[in-house]
Q: What sequence folds into this?
């Protein structure tokens, strides 16, 4: 029988708290401005102490490592810092092995908290390390991208990529706490931000008509990251995913599959391009059907000769990797799906320029 629970929302002065209800593995997701500075006290309140590991990427670490470390140390923690390179191409078994080595060298034990600070690559890779090292470590996620805050850090999916496909190696491992600081979104490149906005639109399209209507009215304010707008938007997306995850945590009953809207073609495109040309949100946006069969990334019609203008995905794609990606993500016998250029659509999608 599917576990049915409702995500509760607790409004705070500076943000919102959404609880992912999974019985003894339930956890809070705090969406607020400036919450990274509260990392130490919040981890201590969650029952952690002593030795811990802070896993981050080079770019994110340069921006936010020191404030998080200061908060952890002030709360009595002894954090070890581990940095990995930026980029989806490093979310693989080779870098997972490096992470294992550095965690063990740092003296991490079974009850030590593994704190992941960064986007989806960091939370996926560190989360999988937490799921498997020493037969399981508790994890705390500090997502710093919009896509990470509304998707990657919620629901317990962890993993790494394989040469034949995205996230083919992984495990379900729920975090103990998620702190989503919306102020970190201000340091995102515009392209990365828009890729996250595409995921916000996906969430609204599949499960929140009220949010979709709000996006149509206030999209520019969302992109402008106005606190009074972005906090409730991120919380709404988290709230929807929390509800879906609570009902079908490990995709046993089919309900969680709704979150894969756009991912079928999107994952194939990411694999075919070596995880280097498209952001995840862009690939998912291309994978979503639009009126007239158009599929494109945020920003309107792609440039002639640009990445989205070159991709044809279907059973006639050439090469072992292409054939496997299509079989893995689209399925045998699927009709070819072509990325086409056309007139810029109206409405929310067209506003992402």
A:
């Amino acid at each position: 029988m599917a576990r049915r629970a409702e995500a509760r929302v607790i409004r705070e002065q500076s943000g919102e708290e959404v609880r992912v209800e999974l019985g003894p593995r339930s956890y809070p997701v705090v969406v607020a401005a400036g919450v990274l500075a509260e990392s130490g006290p919040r981890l201590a309140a969650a029952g952690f102490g002593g030795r811990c590991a802070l896993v981050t990427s080079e770019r994110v670490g340069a921006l936010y490592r020191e404030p998080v470390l200061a908060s952890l140390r002030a709360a009595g923690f002894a954090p070890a810092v581990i940095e990995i390179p930026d980029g989806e191409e490093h979310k693989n078994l080779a870098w997972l092995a490096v992470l294992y080595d550095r965690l063990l060298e740092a003296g991490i034990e079974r009850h030590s908290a593994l704190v992941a600070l960064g986007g989806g690559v960091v939370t996926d890779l560190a989360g999988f390390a937490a799921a498997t090292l020493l037969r399981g470590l508790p994890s705390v996620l500090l997502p710093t991208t919009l896509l990470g805050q509304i998707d990657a850090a919620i629901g317990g999916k962890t993993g790494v990529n394989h040469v034949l496909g995205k996230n083919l190696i992984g495990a379900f491992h729920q975090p103990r706490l998620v702190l989503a600081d919306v102020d970190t979104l201000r340091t995102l490149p515009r392209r990365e931000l828009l890729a996250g906005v595409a995921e916000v639109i996906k969430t609204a399209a599949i499960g929140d008509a009220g949010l979709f209507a709000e996006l149509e009215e206030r999209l520019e304010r969302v992109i402008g990251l106005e606190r009074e707008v972005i906090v409730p938007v991120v919380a709404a997306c988290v709230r929807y995913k929390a509800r879906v995850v609570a009902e079908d945590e490990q995709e046993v009953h089919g309900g969680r599959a709704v979150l894969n809207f756009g991912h079928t073609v999107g994952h194939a495109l990411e694999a075919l391009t070596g995880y280097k040309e498209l952001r995840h949100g862009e690939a998912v946006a291309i994978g979503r059907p639009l009126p007239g069969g158009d599929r494109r990334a945020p920003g309107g019609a792609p440039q002639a000769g640009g990445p989205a203008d070159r991709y044809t995905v279907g059973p006639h794609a050439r090469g072992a990797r292409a054939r496997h990606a299509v079989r893995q993500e689209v399925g045998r016998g699927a009709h070819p799906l072509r990325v086409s250029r056309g007139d810029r659509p109206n409405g929310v999608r067209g506003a992402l320029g």
